[in-house]
Amino acid sequence: MLIHPQFDPIAFSLGPLSVRWYGLMYLVSFVLFVALGRVHARRRPELGWNAQAIDDLLFYGVLGVIIGGRLGEVIFFQPGYYLANPGEILAVWKGGMSFHGGFLGVLVAMLVYGRKHGKGFWQVTDFIAPLVPTGLAAGRIGNFINGELWGRPMDGDWAWGMVFPWVDALPRHPSQLYQAAGEGLLLFVILWLYAAKPRPMRAVSAVFLIGYGSLRFMAEFFRTPDPGIFGTLTLGISTAQWLCLPMIALGAGLLIHIRAGKPAQS
């Protein structure tokens, strides 16, 4: 049995400025997005992306992640808390960023980017899909360092069971690390390899939707469910699982349309 290391959430301080691990993980995710984006652009030059375009994508993506992620947490998962504590809405350095909200925020940001720069929506999302999972992995590591989003109690005595002392003395699944490995590293490998060769428009986006939705749905069985707008559990599944179902359905629908030879609507 393991004990959570109870890391100091502050990585280092520069005078009055404190830099938190959670913020550093976001910085890592943005650096990886740019670095991998440039590699992806070089290996697929026919896609028509360059370093400047990737930098611009990052700017739009950062806005989408931060604004959408925070609003998603407020609306989807903890509306009661933030209604009672509205001053906490802007305290993003404390954690509390919803993937599903950030996902919607990024979609809006990519739509705006595409219209401004003359690129189709699916052209943009197909390019960025393989670049996203490493950022998700970094974010989950940030959750683990912060000691938040802990797992459900383990059924049995497992060697990697982890006690989160501020919660209780029960060994729990280190679900943050499960998610970093699944939605992060595994999904990255799948998408990076899949996107290495020419694919029909929307196909890479579809694989991302199905892959993330499925992996997150499974991971939720090991994670203590968030309260959410639907309650902690509705019909036995969590709010996050409910939000994953439309992603999986949309991804499957896109693949069906592709197989049927229907053109993309950008």
Structure commentary:
The chain has 266 residues and is mostly helical. The chain has one domain (2-259). Helix content is 58%, strand content 6%. It has helices at 21-43, 51-77, 79-84, 99-117, 121-128, 133-146, 175-194, 203-219, 239-259; strands at 2-3, 10-14, 17-20, 162-163, 171-172. The strands form two sheets. A three-stranded mixed sheet has the order 1-4-5, with no helix packed on it. It has a two-stranded antiparallel sheet with strand order 2-3. β4 and β5 (171-172) form a beta hairpin. α1 crosses α2 (51-77) and α4 packs across α5 (121-128). It is globular. The termini are far apart. The mean pLDDT is 90.
Blueprint of the fold:
Blueprint: E1 2-3, E2 10-14, E3 17-20, H1 21-43, H2 51-77, H3 79-84, H4 99-117, H5 121-128, H6 133-146, E4 162-163, E5 171-172, H7 175-194, H8 203-219, H9 239-259
Parallel strand pairs: 1-4
Antiparallel strand pairs: 2-3, 4-5
Helix pairs in contact: 1-2, 1-6, 2-4, 4-5, 6-7, 7-8, 8-9
Q: Report mean pLDDT, rounded to a whole number.
A: 90
Low-confidence stretches: none
Please provide the count of β strands. 5
Number of domains: 1
Overall morphology = globular
N-to-C series of helices and strands: EEEHHHHHHEEHHH
* Structural classification: mainly alpha
Major sheet: size, sense and barrel closure? 3 strands, mixed
Sheet with most strands: strand arrangement: 1-4-5
* Rg calc: 19 Å
Q: Which strand-content bin applies to the residues?
A: 5-15%
Helix fraction bin: 55-70%
Number of helices: 9
Distance between the termini: 51 Å
GO biological process, one term: lipoprotein biosynthetic process
Protein name: Phosphatidylglycerol--prolipoprotein diacylglyceryl transferase
Transmembrane segments: 20-37, 57-77, 97-115, 127-145, 177-196, 203-219, 239-258
EC number: 2.5.1.145
